[in-house]
Amino acid sequence: MLSALGSLAAALWAGFHLRSLLLGAVAFLFTADFLKRRRPKNYPPGPPWLPFVGNFFQLGFKQQHLQLQPSHGTKILEPFFPSGETGRVVSGTKLVKKYGNLLSLEFGDFPLVIVTGLPLIKEVLVHQEQNFMNRPMAPIQEYTFKKDGLIMSSGQTWKEQRRFALSTLRNFGLGKKSLEERIQEEAYHLTEAIEEEKGQPFDPHFKINNAVSNVICSITFGKRFEYQDIQFQELLKLLDEITYIEASMQCQLYNLFPRIMKFLPGSHQTLFRKWEKLKLFVSRIIEEHKRDWNPDESRDFIDAYLKEIAKNSGSASSGFREENLICSTLDLLLAGTETTSTTLRWALLYLAINPEIQEKVQAEIDREIGSSQQPSIADRERLPYTNAVIHEVHRMGNILPLNVPREVVADTTVAGYYLPKGTMIVTNLTALHRDPAEWATPDTFNPEHFLENGQFKKRESFLPFSIGKRACLGEQLARSELFIFFTSLMQKFTFRPPDNEKLSLEFRMGITISPVKHRLCAVPRG
Fold first, then answer.
1. Which one of 65, 77, 270, 367 is most buried, counting C-beta atoms within 10 A?
2. 3 state DSSP class of 264
3. Is the Cβ–Cβ distance between 227 and 189 less than 8 Å?
4. How many Cβ atoms from other residues are within 10 Å of residue 151's Cβ?
5. For residue 91, which of 76, 80, 112, 110 has the smallest C-alpha distance?
């Protein structure tokens, strides 16, 4: 009897002891997380956060940019998701209104500050840009790019890679007639491919991707691809899938808990496999270049980079190595395809939904350049309404709603608030481009925002390519492509919804915001 009581007491004590240990461990982890996240004095205000995940679930990973838009009584469409959840109408929350234009949040281990309003955006990206030049490295970017390339690199690596890329792009025609002629040639191929649809419903996604990507391929690889090329189609498919997958829940959870998620299946593992396929694709083309490479005659970006690698082969500090070539080439391909293609897809969608605006564009084109002359960059000055429409597509399409993030290089003060080194900074382009104080009809597609007395009017509060030294590397190329492609398509076709189909402005969330899958009819003109 005494023995049984003793065993029971020992068991109860052991259970109590185990529970105490577990409770103690949990309490320790929560306390450690709280102390680690404790905001320093004079840090920007923000909402309360949860241990370990911060504000991740409070904002939601599907529509963070909408949650950060100041509420002004308007309605905004939430994205549509292929899983079956349909888009629904939501109002912008009052986070910015409640906490101000410097709003602090927490995402996993990342302290994050959202910068809203043109004065503060200019303060961060222009006036104090030396303190905000770096890129923060989320675990996914670190896994895939390892601080290489043009977009996610920082410091000396970024400076030398950007300087080289800009110089090389200019050498291969950026800002010159030769590159404009390549864009015109590709616009011709695109209109031919669309003509083959004979006015019947079709999905414009990959036809537009084909054309836009071929321009940057001609610079990086030294050649364009036929639209039926299987290798080219695989490349475009990989780029599109990566753009979408990286915004998935599992990928965001990988950024929060990389040490756990790396052992679990999910879309993050799919993303890594697809990045490896893309790297292998570029590696093979580099090997092809090496076989007939002539250092005295660079045919394209890869040749020019191989020459730079050879020139710096004896320098241990040089960033010119093959891994950086692969990452820089992928950066050019991704940025040079996805952003321009998505903007062009939004343009056709908005004009199919707004036929009266499309008619005005076509009337201006017919009046100024006619139906047979191929559009050129020089025509932009003669087509102010068309130019205004393209700018309004940028504003409403909002494809990079929170810009590409920055990281504080050294302890800094902005608007009286203290920002410690390592803080991630995100500039709120959504709020800027939908600010009712800046735009007469902020949530309506209205080209008049960029017109004054019938002439094109630049707007200071329009920053789709960002500003400062880390502004979009390919802005000039993107603007040229958009104008020539868009004007050529408007010249040749009228875009409208298919019979008995209603077009939607709901969007798909990825690295960029793109239209959901849809079909258009391209009816040949005259």
1. 65
2. coil
3. yes
4. 22
5. 76
117 secondary structure, DSSP code: S
Distance, C-alpha 414 to centroid of its chain: 26
Q: Give pTM, 2 decimals.
A: 0.88
- Of 383 and 12, more confident: 383
- Give pLDDT tens digits for 96-129: 888 999 999 988 778 999 999 999 999 999 999 9
Question: Do residues 151 and 137 make contact, with C-beta atoms less than 8 angstroms apart?
Answer: no
Contact 473, 335 (CB under 8 A): yes
Question: Which residue matches tokens 């020089």?
Answer: 378
> Using CA atoms, how far apart are residues 383 and 105, in angstroms rounded to an integer?
44
- Integer Cα distance of 525 and 371 in angstroms: 9
| Dihedral sign computed on CA atoms, order 460, 466, 467, 473 | negative
The more confidently predicted of residues 23 and 88 is 23
CA proximity to 286, closest of 232, 327, 226, 236: 327
CA 177 to CA 403: how far, in whole Å?
30
User: Six-digit token pair at 383?
Assistant: 């087509």
Longest dimension (CA), the chain: 106
What the block records as the tokens of 461 is: 């509060």
